[in-house]
Every structure is written in structure tokens, then in C-alpha cells.
Write the C-alpha cells for this entry.
Amino acid sequence: MKRFADRNVLVTGAASGIGAATAVRLAAEGATVACVDVDTVGLTAMVAAIAASGDRAAPYPLDLLDRDAVRPVVETIAADLGGLDAVCNVAGIGTWGFDADVTLEQWDRILGVNLIGTWLVCQAALPFLVESKGAIVNTASTAATDATPYQAPYAASKGGVVALTRTLAVNHAAERVRVNAVAPGPIDTPIVGSFLPPDGADMDLITHTILPFGEIGRPEEVAAAIAFLASDDASHVNGHVLKVDGGQARLSYFRGRIGGRSTMANTSSRISACSVASSRRGLRPYPTNSPDPSMRLVIAAARRNASPRDLAEVERLMRDSRWRPRQRAVGS
Ligand SMILES: NC(=O)c1ccc[n+]([C@@H]2O[C@H](COP(=O)([O-])OP(=O)(O)OC[C@H]3O[C@@H](n4cnc5c(N)ncnc54)[C@H](O)[C@@H]3O)[C@@H](O)[C@H]2O)c1
């Protein structure tokens, strides 16, 4: 079924992870996709991959922190494509840190990309979406809807995305523009490398808040939800925040209540341990898209197909890092 035949869709963050999977998915469903990202190399590769599949996409380099550049790029896209039917705001950045260590610069960048960047794209695109009676899908996070540790600026930015989504939904309902969001849990993409527990983090706290199923989600699983919300299949869905987290919130609450350390929790511990190991090896902070081999191990440890060799390597990193499962936060 080609739900996006003859439709034009703008996707931010299209060079990597969930945005790339969304661009691929929408193009495969018939859309002409305007791929927007600050990463011009990744953008070129992604557009080439879509074209190689016989689908339609074009690259539009844009740094969402360059506020004056957003509107001209959105207007150029609408002019090039002959209008806009949907906008998927997927670009995002984040980090973990103790409250005492978080800097204003981090707040500015994270809010600047995740919240203000999303707003600027929405604002510039709305006239075209009113014309087409189109749809916006924003990308929040379970960090916005459920408490997750060590993520103050990121969680606040995503909480802002939720509030923005609901407000825009009521603002433009009469114009028949739908505005929804996805709220992913942990997904297997390069951004995971930006989220390393700070030294001395309470690993139990982290253990109880991530990874239901003992597995990290796949970007394609979020892309499918974004495609649904952007499509006419969601014609009566508006102002909604759809969690794509494998049940993270409910399951982590249950684990917290019973105080158990299930297989799921153990997988989560491995990831956190490997993150700690990596950071102790002086590899922090990770740039997005880090090719660092220990980061690949973090991901491998969480993947459904993690090999015994991967897990053994994680165990070794845990030993090297002198990380202990019961390590407590500072002062305890
Ligand atoms: N992966 C997860 O576990 C997870 C969980 C919840 C929410 N999310 C959200 O999903 C979205 C996609 O993340 P992802 O996991 O695919 O990460 P990713 O790092 O693979 O992709 C993020 C993309 O955003 C782009 N980007 C970053 N800063 C930008 C800027 N200033 N201007 C334009 N583009 C910029 C990057 O170049 C990259 O291509 C983000 O909003 C993220 O917060 C991810």
C-alpha cells in the first residue's frame, strides 16, 4: 500500500537513525522526501540509498541551530516540491549528566535543536500544511513522559516537544492540520552514544528505567509509527503522543516495585556498564555518529542478535572499568 503516493514530506534528522529510517519508509510508500540534516555527508548517502531503491528524495542541508536559515530552507523545499503534505521533525541531540555539571551551553544546544528547531520548522511549514490539510509528527521521548535519570535538559526539551505538539494540535485543528508525536524508548541509533552515565551514577536507578524486552528498539519500529501518524490512517488522531518503547514505562515501574533484577535489567546493566567502561577510557563525550568500537559493543550488547563474543567483551570492559553493580551515587 502506497499511503504517500503523490505526497511531499519533509523529514529532519534524515541523515541517521530514526530520521533516516523514516525517510526510507516514507519514500518506499510513495512520498517525495525532502531530507533535512546538518550532517551533509550522511544526508548525501541517505538520499543516494533512497534513489538507488527507485524512490524519490532530495537533500537539504540545514543546521537547526541557525535560526534564520530554517524558514528559507522550508520555503525552498515547498517551492521545489510543489507544496508540503507532512513534516516529520526527528532531528535531536542529548546527553546525560549530574545536575551540578550541566552547563548553560548544553541547555542552549539541546533546547535549540530539539525544541526551538522543531518549533521553527513547524512555524515555517504550517502555511503549506494548512493548504494541503497535512500533518506534523514530532519526536519526543519517554524521557518526557516518564522520569528518566540524569537527563534534565534533554527531558525538558522533549517535555517541551510534547507541550508544543498538543498546543499546535488545538491551534490548527479547525484548519484540518493534525499534529502528533512519537515518544521512543531506547532505540538502536548513534544517539545512544551521547547518553553515557556520569561517573558515580546510580546504576540501579538506570537499570530500573530502561529496556523492556531486554532489547533495544530498532529505528524502523519508530519509523513505522511516524508513518502511521503522518498518514491518512491516522485521520482522527490529533494531539496524541504515541510511545514506541516496548512497554518501558509499565515494565520499569513493575521492576522498581518488586525490586527484581530480571534478565531485562541485566541487559540494561550491561549497556550501562559498557558505557561506564567507555567513559573511563577517556572516550566521553561521544559525538553523534561515533564510530568508536566500544560504542558498537554497547549497541551489540543490547541487540537481539548479540553474540556470546560481544557479551564476553562487554564483561571484560566491565572488569576493566572496575564498575560494580551496586555502585551508588555520590555521597552514599
Ligand atoms: N535513539 C533513541 O534511543 C531515542 C529515544 C528517544 C527519542 N529519540 C529521539 O529520536 C530522534 C532521532 O534520534 P536518533 O536516535 O535517530 O539519533 P541520531 O543521532 O541517529 O540522529 C539524529 C539526527 O539529527 C541530526 N541533527 C543533530 N543536530 C542537528 C542540527 N543542529 N540540525 C539538523 N540536524 C541535526 C543529526 O545529524 C542526526 O542525523 C531525536 O529527536 C532523539 O531525541 C531517540
Observations:
- The mean pLDDT is 80.
- The pocket of nicotinamide-adenine-dinucleotide is lined by residues 13, 15-19, 37-39, 42, 62-65, 90-94, 113-114, 139, 141, 184, 186-187, 189-192, 219, 288 (CB under 6 Å).
- The CA atoms of residues 60 and 256 lie 44 Å apart.
- The chain has two domains: 8-247, 249-321.
